[in-house]
Amino acid sequence: MINVLIALAIAIACFALGVSVTGGEFIAGFIPALLAFGISYVMLARRTGKKFQALMEKVGASLQKQRLREAVNLLESARALGRWQFLIGPQIDAQLGTLAYLQRDWPKAKKHLSKAWKRDWHAVGMLAAIDYRDGDVTAAVRRMKDAKGAGKKESVYWALSIYFLASSKRYDEALTICAQALKQLPDNTALKNLKQAVANRKKLKMKPFGQTWYQFFPEHIPQKARMQRPPGRQRSARPR
């Protein structure tokens, strides 16, 4: 937000200067103001973005060393950058929510993930998985549907809704989601096998969806792998 205000102030100054120099010609002030706003905003956003990226690299290093508290403190310290640039705040909450989620602190995870960017389908998926654990499958599937635009090309996005429904014995609805998924990803073997399992009312095998699946259901991680797994992951940081 501060970056926008600074860029706007620069634009207003350029507008006033242009009008003054030309003796009151509006267009002579408007064009320089527009250019000044765009250029200054991009430069300011890039500067803030570099600071945020550098901090996220430190967060990633802390997580690699399994220093969870240190990573959380670093993320909290980045909130000051959120006052300067849009979407940094939601990214911070998405990160904090992910860390809490992987620690299975569902209430804390929900608090942060609810503040994440609505087009972050990973955050939405975690919220939906919390709904599922709370017994509200309808709410879980509705959340995933709302995030379709961002996640429709990811197999795990579809697998979540299918899992929610099939595990609740809502097989016909699960098959409908399977059909939608295969329309988007017709060559995906994991989704094809999932559809077959749902059609035959068999237990779903989620292992083919790999490590991404375990981000949403960390309790499914095999015990041996769980002992070796760091407490979180570094999400991409691309403030806009």
Would you summarize the structure shown here?
With 240 residues, the chain is mostly helical. It is 72% helix and 0% strand.
Explained architecture:
- The chain has a domain at 118-228: Tetratricopeptide repeat domain (Serine Threonine Protein Phosphatase 5, Tetratricopeptide repeat), CATH 1.25.40.
- The chain is 72% helix and 0% strand.
- The protein has helices at 2-21, 26-64, 68-77, 79-82, 88-102, 106-113, 121-133, 137-146, 148-151, 155-167, 171-184, 189-199, 210-216, 223-228.
- Annotation, overall tally of beta strands: 0
Q: Tell me the overall shape.
A: elongated
Q: What would you report as the Rg, rounded to the nearest angstrom?
A: 23 Å
Helical run tally: 14
What's the architecture of the domain at 118-228, going by CATH?
Answer: Alpha Horseshoe
**CATH homologous superfamily designation of the domain at 118-228:** Tetratricopeptide repeat domain
The H-and-E topology, N to C, reads as: HHHHHHHHHHHHHH
